[in-house]
Amino acid sequence: MSTVTRNMAKELAGDNIRVNAVAPGTIATDFHVRHSNEAHLTAACASIPMGRLGTAEECVGAYVFLGTDALSGYVTGQIIEVNGGQLMP
User: Fold this and answer.
1) Is-contact 29 75, C-beta < 8 A?
2) Tens-digit pLDDT profile for residues 7-58
3) Got the DSSP string for 25-63?
4) Global pTM?
């Protein structure tokens, strides 16, 4: 994702097109509730420095920021990680 985002940003910047991405970490969803047991969720939370799964609502700010020209009009080629400090491979 990072290579595609940055390459597209370089290619399209001259046309005033910004290309950015949001990389959410482990987000609490219905999928996790249905397909994970308590031990798995506890282990997942232990791997996150903030000690918990994120929420969809916590990702919204990154999307609003990138979608608002007044806030991010000069931002391109960036990946915003919303992951509670969890390192992404």
Assistant:
1) no
2) 999 999 999 999 999 999 999 999 877 888 889 899 999 999 999 999 999 9
3) -SB--HHHHHH--HHHHHHHHHTSTTSS-B-HHHHHHHH
4) 0.84
Evaluate whether 26 touches 59 at the Cβ level (below 8 Å): no
Task: Work out the number of other CB atoms within 10 angstroms of the CB of residue 31.
Answer: 9
CB 19 within 8 A of CB 77: yes
3-state secondary structure of 89: coil
| CATH superfamily, with its number, for domain 2-82 | NAD(P)-binding Rossmann-like Domain (3.40.50.720)
Environment class of 40 (CB within 10 Å of its CB; exposed 0-12, middle 13-18, buried 19+): exposed
Show Cβ contacts of residue 83 under 8 Å, excluding neighbours closer than 6 positions.
Answer: 23, 24, 25, 26, 48, 54
